[in-house]
């Protein structure tokens, strides 16, 4: 591991340095034999013998880092820099470690110094590019990697790094081309094949993507991420059953994988045949297993228990980008009362875009923690002395529930990204509202105590400026057009059956379904509706669209039909903003009640059906009320704008009051 240090132009200039070199060589041999502790002891002796010799401190730092002693490694690298501030190896190793800890500004400075001291240092150039990428500086990152490849054309690591930067830039074709080049040189490199499969997914070359991901699993059945990404692909096509089969296949090979179990829980939210009680039991079982294997490592000091002091709130998410979670977070980050709250954001995903920069500019402290292990992230949160830690993912996206199981903050809560229990007893609260979780309905389904905001658990801000048609398409077309803009996985068999009943009762009606990938997703939906007697000519399928085009498609819809048992959140807000009423039938699960919550908040509860048959009946009746649809087309945007759903100030104060009450309970040792 340490051989490359011998290539430095480092010459022993004293007998102490020569003796230190002998100890370092002995330490290298111990390391090669797998005796890291012995190697580090030899490096310590070398550093004590030649305290002004950077090489000794660097070897000790690398050894300590390999043993997991990051604080000791940092100290050793800093000792090396005290001896020689321009030392390229010391700057590189410390910069690389600080990058992994999310300390990007300092890492950038150190890596710049390493490259000034040694321009022909491709390893440093590659890590420097990752630091630039993590800060959204994508063009400079790509330039650094191309320089590294000019220095070392066959470096597959640099090519892989360039793939990641091109992907982040949105140059997916270029990213795929880089990986194709890598795979020609090294066709058995499963990590590159996995990345290739994920890129093909983004290019919507799903047949090739599925083949690549299945090939990864066949070659390496222990490649956990391949199961997840293949599951995501199947989920995108509405094949939730096959997604769950993949999860179970992965768990059969990796029986201890809590990550795959968590991913399976996400999928089960979409399955109608799984009762809410069974789903709650499965979540609790997951939480018990996670907490049994994850010790609470943090002593939460009671001297912090001052009820009225400024609090540090930390948000943990893999969706701090152009994603519904990021979009809903922006108004909150802008309006937090900085006199009473200091806001930390922990970004757990490598996905960075322009919206990430907008979010990061509104946090008091922003940390890219995508490279940190769960223990390292928990340590960072503990070091920051976060008072309230908010999980925005649950079992979705980049889930970091293992961090919360360590309880690095006194008060922990789940909100926004997952409308169900996490199953963890160490997350004390789930933030919701009275409409999504009515009192007495869902308490028993949660390990958390429910905190109901008084108006709404969401704060909507339209993410693009799009005007809407003041006239419903019914007036132009002479027939009603229903629509759905929800992900295909939400359009369950029950939902399809209800839609077929509606269309049968209205022979002239049409249906628009947006966000449907070509292939199995489209074929399956058309087949199910066709089997129910609905002609293909009555159905318009729209592929995934840029956001402006997506919003404009609402002008083609008179009434939006919400799916069951997984309701729409962002799509319901978007529809109302575009003047389109949404018809929903809530169930007992929180995830089935999103649209009902939003409709109540906006003041149109008459669009909430009581039963599936009532859903069909209301769709038919509303479709015949032209004057009502015309009135709503004109009024819904303003009604939405003036409702609590878009009252950013009131929402933020409501949430902050909830935080204060959670904190008061902890300070007073009041049990949840």
Keywords:
single chain; about 675 residues; alpha/beta; Rossmann fold; seven-stranded parallel beta sheet; 29 helices; globular; disordered N terminus
Task: Report the principal-axis shape.
Answer: globular
Could you tell me the number of beta strands? 12
Helix content: 40-55%
Which fold name fills CATH's third level, the topology of the domain at 302-459 and 651-667?
A: Rossmann fold
Contiguous low-pLDDT stretches (5 residues minimum) are 1-12
Largest beta sheet, briefly? Answer: 7 strands, parallel
* Strand adjacency order, main sheet: 3-2-1-4-5-6-7
CA radius of gyration: 28 Å
Q: Please, how many helices?
A: 29
Structural class: alpha/beta
The CATH architecture of the domain at 302-459 and 651-667 comes to 3-Layer(aba) Sandwich
Cα(first) to Cα(last) distance is 50 Å
| β-strand amount | 5-15%
CATH class of the domain at 302-459 and 651-667: Alpha Beta
Q: Kindly state the mean pLDDT as a whole number?
A: 94
């Amino acid at each position: 591991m340490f051989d490359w240090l011998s290539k430095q132009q480092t010459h022993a200039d004293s007998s102490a340095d020569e003796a230190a070199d002998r100890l370092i060589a002995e330490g290298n041999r111990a390391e090669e034999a797998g005796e890291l502790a012995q190697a580090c002891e030899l490096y310590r002796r070398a550093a004590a013998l030649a305290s002004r010799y950077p090489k000794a401190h660097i070897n000790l730092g690398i050894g300590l880092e390999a043993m997991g002693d990051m604080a000791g490694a940092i100290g050793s690298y800093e000792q090396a820099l005290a001896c020689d501030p321009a030392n390229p190896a010391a700057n590189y190793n410390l910069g690389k470690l600080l990058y992994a800890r999310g300390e990007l500004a300092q890492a950038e400075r150190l890596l710049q110094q390493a490259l000034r001291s040694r321009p022909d240092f491709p390893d440093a150039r590659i890590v420097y590019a990752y630091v630039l990428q993590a800060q959204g500086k994508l063009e400079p990152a790509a330039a650094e990697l191309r320089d590294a490849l000019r220095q070392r054309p066959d470096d597959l690591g640099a090519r892989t790094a360039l793939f990641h930067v091109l992907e982040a830039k949105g140059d997916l074709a270029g990213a795929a081309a880089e990986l194709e080049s890598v795979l020609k040189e090294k066709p058995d490199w499963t990590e590159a094949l996995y990345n290739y499969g994920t890129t093909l997914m983004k290019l919507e070359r799903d047949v090739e993507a599925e083949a690549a991901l299945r090939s990864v699993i066949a070659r390496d059945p222990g490649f956990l991420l391949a199961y997840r990404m293949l599951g995501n692909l199947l989920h995108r096509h509405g094949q939730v059953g096959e997604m769950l089969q993949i999860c179970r296949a992965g768990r059969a090979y990796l029986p201890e994988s809590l990550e795959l179990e968590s991913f399976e829980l996400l999928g089960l939210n979409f399955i109608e045949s799984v009762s809410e009680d069974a789903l709650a039991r499965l979540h609790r079982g997951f939480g018990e297993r996670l907490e049994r294997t994850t010790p609470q490592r943090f002593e939460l000091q009671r001297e912090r228990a001052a009820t009225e002091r400024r609090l540090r709130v930390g948000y943990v998410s893999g969706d701090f980008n152009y994603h519904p979670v990021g979009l809903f977070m922006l108004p909150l980050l802008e309006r937090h009362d900085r006199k009473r709250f200091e806001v930390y954001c922990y970004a757990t995903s490598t996905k960075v875009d322009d919206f990430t920069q907008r979010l990061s500019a509104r946090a008091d402290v922003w940390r890219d923690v995508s490279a940190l292990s769960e223990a390292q992230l928990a340590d960072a949160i503990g070091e920051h002395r976060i008072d309230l830690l908010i999980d925005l993912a649950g079992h979705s996206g980049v889930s970091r529930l293992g961090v919360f199981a360590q309880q690095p903050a006194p008060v922990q809560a789940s909100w926004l990204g997952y409308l169900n229990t996490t199953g963890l007893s160490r997350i004390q609260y789930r933030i919701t509202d009275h409409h999504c979780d009515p009192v007495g309905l869902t308490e028993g389904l949660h390990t958390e105590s429910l905190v109901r905001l008084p108006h709404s658990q969401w704060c909507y801000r339209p993410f693009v400026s799009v005007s809407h048609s003041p006239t419903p398409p019914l007036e132009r077309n002479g027939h009603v057009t229903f629509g759905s803009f929800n992900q295909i996985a939400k359009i369950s068999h029950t939902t399809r059956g209800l839609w077929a009943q509606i269309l049968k009762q209205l022979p002239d009606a049409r249906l628009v379904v947006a966000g449907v990938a070509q292939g199995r997703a489209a074929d399956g939906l058309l087949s199910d509706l066709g089997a129910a007697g609905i002609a293909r000519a009555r159905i318009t399928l729209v592929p995934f669209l840029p956001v402006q085009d997506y919003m404009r498609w609402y002008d083609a819809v008179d009434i939006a039909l919400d799916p069951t048992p997984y309701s729409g959140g962002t799509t319901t807000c978007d529809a109302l903003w575009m003047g389109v009423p949404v018809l929903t039938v809530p169930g007992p699960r929180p995830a089935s009640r999103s649209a009902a919550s939003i409709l109540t908040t906006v003041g149109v509860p008459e669009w909430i059906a009581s039963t599936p048959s009532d859903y069909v009946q209301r769709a038919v009746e509303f479709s015949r009320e032209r004057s009502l649809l015309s009135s709503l087309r004109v009024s819904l945007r303003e009604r939405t704008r003036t409702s609590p759903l878009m009252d950013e100030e009131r929402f933020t104060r409501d949430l902050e009051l909830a935080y204060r009450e959670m904190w008061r309970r902890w300070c007073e040792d009041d049990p949840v």
